[in-house]
């Protein structure tokens, strides 16, 4: 078929069960949605109409390239000499929540939402979130450096607000909310981070802090185990398979699966 229209996408979202009001966290692959007339702008417009004026859209707008310890950064700088690496770090643009584009790995829709008039973005230099709607300020207002994806981050607020998650052409292997489980483990590995930010004086500055060492390699299997335990609505939006689920229900089900089993008590 030809290009999908904004109206086609709105119909797909309605059939999937996206309702006006509330908070919707979107993770999307526009490549899988297929060709859309007016591109990412039309997809965002369809989502905004689906949640209505009372609804709030949220996207992950991370910039892992800004961390000297991230796999992305290590991959980009692999093989550089000491002098070349120093020059690379000097040339790195500092993170500015108002202007820094999100990583290409986040997808075109995240960047479209970030740039939308009225959108707000949290200030974490590596794991920011952007939100658009009445609850945008409440979701993004504070993002401590040590709380990349923790209970005191925008992701934790999505959990607290009872947000729904829309997986649009994506699957559980990239389901960011599962990282909330990492903060429930007292023995979770930690590491030192360094990120370049725009300082209060408008000049670049380095921020060094300690946070959790993240690993999402098990998310795909975790998602397959969680799927039968929660109510998931399935459909198609454009050409993409789509799923709609309560973020809190998915995280709670994953937490229950990960909880240690108490030993049986014998009489």
TrEMBL record:
What keywords does the record list, in alphabetical order? Acyltransferase, Antibiotic resistance, Transferase
Recorded catalytic reaction(s): these are: a 2-deoxystreptamine antibiotic + acetyl-CoA = an N(3)-acetyl-2-deoxystreptamine antibiotic + CoA + H(+)
Enzyme class (EC, first level): transferase
> So which domain of life are we looking at?
Bacteria
Entry EC number(s): 2.3.1.-
Q: Cite the PANTHER family for this sequence.
A: AMINOGLYCOSIDE N3-ACETYLTRANSFERASE, SPBETA PROPHAGE-DERIVED AMINOGLYCOSIDE N(3')-ACETYLTRANSFERASE-LIKE PROTEIN YOKD
The Swiss-Prot or TrEMBL record describes its family as follows: Belongs to the antibiotic N-acetyltransferase family.
Q: What is this protein called?
A: Aminoglycoside N(3)-acetyltransferase
Protein species of origin: Streptacidiphilus jiangxiensis
